[in-house]
Prior knowledge:
The complex is a heterodimer of chains A (128) and B (351).
Chain A: E1 8-12, H1 16-28, E2 32-36, H2 39-48, E3 53-57, H3 65-73, E4 81-86, H4 91-100, E5 104-107, H5 112-126
Parallel strand pairs in A: 1-2, 1-3, 3-4, 4-5
Helix pairs in contact in A: 2-3
Chain B: H1 3-43, H2 47-54, H3 62-68, H4 72-86, H5 92-103, H6 106-113, H7 119-132, H8 138-144, H9 150-163, H10 169-175, H11 185-193, H12 200-207, H13 212-224, H14 231-240, H15 244-257, H16 262-268, H17 276-289, H18 295-301, H19 307-317, H20 321-329, H21 335-346
Helix pairs in contact in B: 1-4, 2-3, 4-5, 6-7, 7-9, 8-9, 9-11, 11-13, 12-13, 13-15, 14-15, 15-17, 16-17, 17-19, 18-19, 19-20, 19-21
Amino acid sequence: MPATDGVRILVADDDADIRDLVEFKLSQAGYTVHAVPDGMAAWDAFRADPPDLVVLDVMMPGLSGFDVLRNIRESEHREVAVLLLSAKSRDSDVDTGFAVGADDYVIKPFSPRELVHRVNGILARTRG
Amino acid sequence: MSGRHLLVAAEAAVLAGCVLLALVVIVIKVVRGQRQRRHEAALRPIRPALIEVASGEDEDGSARRALTATTGATRVAVDEGVADFLGKVRGGPADQLVEILRSHGALREAVRLLRHRSPVRRTRAALLLGLSRDRGGVPGLVEALDDHSAEVRSAAAHGLGLIGDDGSAPALLGAIAGPGGGIPAGVAAGALLELGVGIAPALREALASTDSRTRAVAAHVAGVGSFRSLLPLLRDLLAGDEDLTVREASAEAIGAMGEARDVDVLTRHTNPGEPTPLRRLCATALGRLGEPAAVPTLEQLARDPDPRLAELAATALVGLGPEGRAALAGLADTPGGATALTLARLQGALA
C-alpha cells in the first residue's frame, strides 16, 4: 500500500452519485478528498490550494474536464497529476484526454477498486 | 361578426392557449419537483449505505442487509437509487447492487412492467433489465423488440447488448426490419457488438437477408468485430448487392479485416464506372488494409478529377508504410497530395 496520509485529491464531477462515491472510496483508501460539482469550482479550488492529484469528469457544465486540464497544464502547478473519469469511451476521446495532458483515463462505468489502484499508481510514479 | 371582432376573438383564444400551456408546464414542474424531493427524502437515510455498497466497501455485508431490509417508499427509493448506480459502476459492487434488486423482486417486476401500458415504464423496465445483466431478462427483452413504441424497442435492444447473451443475436438482427420501423441500425449494431464472437452464424444468415438494412448492419458488425470467416460473403455483397449502402458497408468491413488478395477486390470498385461514394470508401479501405500492393492504385486515384476521392486516396497512402509515404511525396504538386501531406505532418506521421 502506498503512503496516503496527507495526500490531497480534488474530485470534480457534476453527477452527485459519482462524486460522493469517489470521495468516499478515496477517503476510505486514506486520502484527503475535496469534491466539487463542476469545472469552474474545480479550477477555483485548484488555484486556491493545488492538490496532489485531480480526478476530473470530462463532461461538466461550464468548464469541461478538458478545459480544466488545459488550464492546469498551463499553470505554475502544471506537474499535478490528473486522472480523467469519463463516460466518453471512444478511442478519439481517450486520445484527446492524453493529448491534453492526462496522466490516466478511466471510462465509466468503472470499478471503484480499479480507480483506487490507478490513483495509487499515478501517485507512486509522480511522487517517486 | 365583423373581421375586427374575429381578430380579437382569435387573439384571445391564442392568449388563453398560451396561459393554459404555461400553467400545465408549471404544474408538471411542481409535481416533478415534489416527487424528486420525496424521493430524495426517502433515500437520504440510506444513501450512505448505498454509497458503501456501490463503492465496494461493504465488506461485512451490513450495508447490503440494511438496504435489503427496507420497505414501502424507502424500498422504492432504494431500488431507484440502485438502478442509478448500476449504470455507473461495474465489477463486484455492480453484482452486489443487482443482488439487492433481486431480493426486492425488482427484476421480476421489471419483466412484468415490460407489458405496462405506459411506454415510459416499459422503457425504464427494459433499461433496468439490461443494467442488471440478468439473463432471466432476455426473453422479455426479445419480445419487447417488437413493441409498438420505438423508444421501448431501442431500450430492449440496448438492454440485450448489456446482458451480452449471444443467443439474442438472431432476434436483434430480425428486429432491424421489424414492425413500426424496427430498431435503428446504430442501436442494433451497438448491441450486436456487445455479444461477442458467438454471433458469427447469425451474422452469416443476416448477410443473406432480404432486407437491405439488415444486410448493411450485419456487414458493418462483421467488419468492426473482425469476423474474418465472413469475408467471402462480404466480397460477394461488395461486388453485386443491389443496395449501395450494403456495398459500402461491405467495402469498409473488407478494409478493416481483409487479406492481401482484397487489394484487387477493392481496387476493382474504384473504377470510374462505380458510384462515387463507393469509390471513395474503397480508396479509404485500401489504406486501412495496410497492404503496400495498394500503392499504385492509390497513387493513380490521388490524381482523380474527383477532389474528395483524390484527397482520400492520398491520405490512405500515409498508412501504407515507406512505399506509401514515398508515393505521397511525389504527389505534393496535387491538391489532394498537398492536403494529405499537411495532415500527415500535423499528425506526426511524416518527418
